[in-house]
Specification:
The chain is α/β, with parallel strands linked by helices. The chain has 29 helices and 15 strands.
């Protein structure tokens, strides 16, 4: 691994450790503050969300209704009393205040008292369990229906023979007459009676198979309608969330474009790519779970609980004692899942950085036959990422079983209670089965909510990382002034400037003093790392010096509007930046409104028109990623054409001819000559053919200006300058005299400022202006 790659990996790992320590100190919550902020992006489309919520509500209600259809089916299959008989019996028992049942015997059906609560008015009157009620002249079923239909407060009389009347005392009465006031019907029984009243009693009692088909058909229709609403709910929610993610990505993209250069210098770009892709995807999944499952499943569970309360409130309340235990499991596993996912997302950034580095240098990898080395390096990154992935997978796998075990324990406890009531004949088998089915159906939403929780935890981790970027002050707000900027009138000055990059061990520039006058051509030369590009970066305000200042016509750059300042400068970098698009789009970059005539004129002046017209699609030909379809010289000429079209009064060339052949070098020199006319020009160069005709040459070494002056004078007195020229000449292609003379003529023909003072090239001399 190269030192640069190793340093990048260590830096990202260190950032991960610092971030994890900071996050570990925060209390774990289901919805982090940053995730709640992402909710706002989807909530901007609240009409879609509200429509989805309404559909989810209808689905949950209809799902509970279809589940309630289990009882009629069970009653028809398992019980002879049927659905109407069950409703009449339960309603009559509520009205009477004691339990009765119809017992089928060989001599017919008998209406028997099953239980009488202590304290009941008839308990003291001699009514006991096992007594047989005489329904004469009606049948037991009709007697129960009559009791169920009477109004509350009505006085009701009936006869009952005591239990064991065959062995009663000789003087004991055969029948005992009882009188009581009927209780008012409660809401539960009234609802049941109204619902059952929708189905004809004769149909259910006459043909039970037909009744079963009718009930199942109703259940199927309700289930179909419910799932249509479920589909619509998920569709509307997905629409809102996906549109919200478009807004989030747009804001993130806008924020990244406005971040200061120091941000990229400190953190690199691989992690930002991960945030654009992986983190936003995690947030999207979390929001879909939040607005979809976290709404639908609790609603479904709520309606099932309501049904369970309707059937047996005490039993349902007893089951809810498992909620604190479930909450503890949610909290413990969710906290770990969020932390594990944060580490995984950070490792994605390291992986993307390593892989993109290999792809961008694939020619070097193949030339040096280091495929095996790079494979081992990426394998190591993969193994590290696997550790985080496996931990997260284990946490995700642990939550549903843990919750399901708790739910099964709760249902089992409830089933024991229900079973005891069945054995005590307080509950029949069909009622037991329905309650067991309803309580068992609670497991499904609990299981799905467990999956929702892990998704939201992962989304929260992604949101934390995204908003660390979004909350970074943009360059304009952080560093821009409020003074307008026009074309340079007088000079640019660097006054005692000292600058150090973030995390650097030593300054890149130390106590630099330099004046560049309007219309002057200044060349910056020096060994690698001497501070040439850093000086240019300060002029563009990519960074601000820690000490000293940079002035533009006497005004500190910090007081000027940043966008207006940069519009005064055209930059041609050592690396020709070509975007994946057409040649026309690349030349017009920054001036998308430029006409075809202006674009072609800029290309002609940059000596690019000749090769552009020779291509199959001309200016509309796509150049591929990074301009892969073009040669180095062609890319450089397109970049110069872009600078010509920008028509800025200040030109900066950063090693613009360092990586081209002789023919391209000649044409680029001619383009520079054309572009530099009547403009303030700064050349960063290592070839004498580029800088020997500059008005002034500034020699830098170790972040300091060690000498400045014209070419001939510097060559005589400055050993460092001579060595730079000698090294450049040995590495450069043969000079093209016509091009050099042409560049000399145009530069010498311009009005030249007064030359700088001639000084000795000494390492301990004072910095020069």
């Amino acid at each position: 691994m190269t030192p640069l790659r190793r340093m990048t990996t260590i830096r990202m790992d260190l950032n991960s450790i610092i971030t994890d320590d900071a996050q570990r100190a925060r209390p774990a919550r289901l919805l982090s503050t940053q995730f709640i902020r992402t909710v706002g992006y989807a909530w901007a489309y609240r009409r879609l969300l509200v429509t989805g919520f309404f559909c989810a509500l209808l689905f949950a209600a209809l799902h509970a209704v279809s589940l309630a259809g289990v009882l009629p089916v069970l009653k028809l299959i398992l019980d002879e009393e049927g659905l109407h008989g069950w409703v009449d019996r339960t309603a009559a028992c509520r009205r009477l205040g004691f339990e009765v049942e119809i017992v089928r015997r060989t001599d017919g059906a008998a209406l028997t008292v099953r239980s009488v609560p202590d304290g009941h008015v008839l308990a003291s009157a001699g009514l006991n369990p096992g007594d047989v009620i005489d329904p004469t002249p009606a049948t037991p079923e009709a007697w129960l229906a009559e009791v169920a239909s009477k109004p509350g407060g009505a006085v009701f009389e009936f006869n009952a023979s005591p239990a064991g009347s065959g062995s009663r005392a000789p003087n004991a009465p055969a029948l005992i007459r009882h009188t009581l006031t009927l209780r008012a019907p409660d809401l539960k029984e009234s609802v049941k009676q109204r619902l059952v009243g929708l189905v004809d009693r004769q149909t259910l009692e006459g043909d039970r198979l037909k009744a079963l088909v009718v009930i199942l058909a109703i259940v199927c229709v309700v289930a179909v309608i419910a799932n249509v609403f479920r589909f619509l709910a998920e569709l509307f929610v997905s629409d809102a969330v996906l549109k919200g993610m478009i807004r989030l990505r747009a804001q993130l993209y806008d924020c990244v474009l406005q971040l200061p250069m120091s941000y990229f210098a400190a953190r690199g770009t691989a992690d930002l790519v991960t945030q654009f892709v992986q983190d936003v995807q995690e947030i999207q999944r979390g929001l879909l779970a939040f607005f979809g499952k976290l709404v639908t499943e609790p609603l479904k569970a709520g309606f099932i609980l309501a049904l369970a309360f309707f059937l047996d409130a005490r039993l349902t309340l007893a089951m809810l004692v498992i909620l604190p235990a479930a909450g503890s499991v949610f909290w413990a596993i969710g906290r770990q899942a969020r932390r594990a996912n944060r580490k995984l997302l950070q490792q994605y950034g390291v992986m993307i950085g390593g892989f993109s580095t290999v792809l961008s240098a694939i020619d070097v990898v193949k030339a040096y036959t280091t495929e095996a080395f790079e494979r081992r390096r990426l394998d190591e990154l993969d193994r590290r990422m696997f550790k985080h992935q496996f931990r997260l997978a284990a946490l995700q796998a642990a939550l549903p079983p843990a919750l399901e075990v708790l739910a099964v324990i709760g249902v089992s406890i409830a089933s024991v209670w229900l079973g005891s009531r069945v054995l005590d004949r307080q509950l029949n088998v069909s009622e037991f089965m329905q309650l067991a089915v309803v309580l068992g159906m609670l497991l499904d939403p609990i299981r799905k909510v467990a999956d929702v929780y892990t998704r939201i935890s992962r989304g929260s981790a992604g949101a934390d990382r995204i908003f660390r970027v979004l909350d970074t002050p943009p360059e304009e707000r952080e560093r821009g002034g409020d003074r307008d900027v026009g074309a340079l009138r007088d000079r640019i000055e660097l006054e005692s400037v000292t600058f150090m990059y973030p995390n650097a061990a030593s300054p890149a520039l130390s106590d630099v003093n330099l004046t560049i006058r309007r219309g002057e051509c200044v060349a910056l030369v020096g060994p690698n790392g001497s501070g040439k590009t850093t000086l240019v970066n300060l002029l563009l305000r990519f960074y601000d010096p820690q000490r000293g200042g940079v002035r533009y016509d006497g005004a500190d750059l910090r007081t000027l509007k940043l966008d207006q300042l940069r519009r005064q400068i055209s930059l041609v970098t050592q690396k020709s930046i070509i975007f994946d698009g057409t040649i026309r789009e690349n030349i017009a970059y920054g001036r998308e409104d430029a006409s075809d005539e202006l674009i072609r004129d800029a290309a002609r002046r940059a000596f690019a028109d000749e090769f552009i017209r020779a291509r199959r699609d001309g200016y509309e030909e796509r150049v591929g990623e990074g301009g892969i379809m073009l040669s180095g010289g062609q890319r450089q000429r397109i970049v110069i054409a872009r600078a010509i079209l920008r028509n800025a009064p200040i030109l900066i060339f950063d090693e613009a001819t360092s990586q081209v052949d002789t023919e391209s070098d000649e044409k680029i020199h001619r383009a520079i000559r054309e572009l530099a006319r009547d403009r303030t020009t700064i050349l960063i160069a290592h070839r004498p053919s580029t800088f020997r005709f500059a008005d002034r040459i500034v020699v830098l070494d170790g972040g300091r200006i060690v000498d400045a002056g014209e070419y001939d004078a510097l060559f005589v007195r400055c050993a460092l300058f001579r060595s730079l020229c000698a090294g450049a000449e040995s590495d450069a292609p043969p000079e093209n005299p016509p091009a050099a003379e042409a560049l000399s003529g145009v530069l010498s023909s311009r009005t030249s400022p007064s030359p700088s003072a001639v000084v000795a090239c000494e390492p301990d001399r004072e910095p020069l202006r």
